[in-house]
Design goal:
186 residues; alpha+beta; single chain; 8 helices; 13% strand
């Protein structure tokens, strides 16, 4: 059961446009809340979490300039070098919006460790969402929400993913990812 194109909203359209540009330059994944919303959970969010492979400064500038040419702005700075040096290379995220509106936002960060690189390596497109974008695996998202984030909202998100993707989930992978999270992030 895929979502119909007529079900698209501002958040979906923003995501599709942004990711199409990013995909020309670097591997990426969408993780966390937007995946759950795309899988049918009714809850609000005004941002989308995007992890990209680490780029050098010149490659990032090329990506940033392409985003700007296509109507996106970075909230932290207009200058690619500042965004790269003061934020991304320092391990922080940056936020992009459409130049015509403040919301939604795309929160972009570099992969920071082997766990993020593993997610990028195992990225997937999820037909149920009706979106032609790359997501982190369902198992990894469940593991992060249950083992690392643990807020009530995150635990409800994980439960939603377990219900929606029940027959497709590999519980062994979830437990392996939880072990990696404990060893790398906790």
């Amino acid at each position: 059961m895929e979502r119909a194109v007529s079900d698209r909203n501002i958040l979906d359209d923003f995501c599709i446009r942004f990711c199409a540009i990013v995909d020309r330059h670097v591997r990426y994944i969408i993780v966390s809340g937007f995946l759950v919303i795309s899988a049918g959970r009714r809850r609000s969010t005004e941002d989308i979490d995007l992890i990209i492979e680490r780029l050098d400064r010149k490659s990032f500038a090329t990506l940033h300039n392409d985003l700007v040419r296509n109507g996106f702005v970075c909230m932290q700075s207009e200058k690619a070098e500042t965004i790269y040096d003061d934020h991304l290379a320092a391990g922080m995220s940056v936020r992009y919006t459409d130049k015509e509106r403040d919301n939604p936002e795309m929160e972009v960060k570099f992969a920071k460790d082997e766990l993020d690189r593993l997610q990028l390596k195992n990225r997937t497109k999820i037909p149920l969402t009706g979106l032609d974008v790359w997501f982190g695996s369902i198992e990894m998202n469940i593991a992060f929400k249950e083992e690392y984030l643990k807020s009530d909202k995150d635990l409800e998100d994980a439960q939603h993913l377990r219900v929606v993707f029940g027959g497709q989930i590999d519980e062994k992978k979830i437990n392996q990812f939880k072990g990696l999270i404990r060893s790398m992030r906790l």
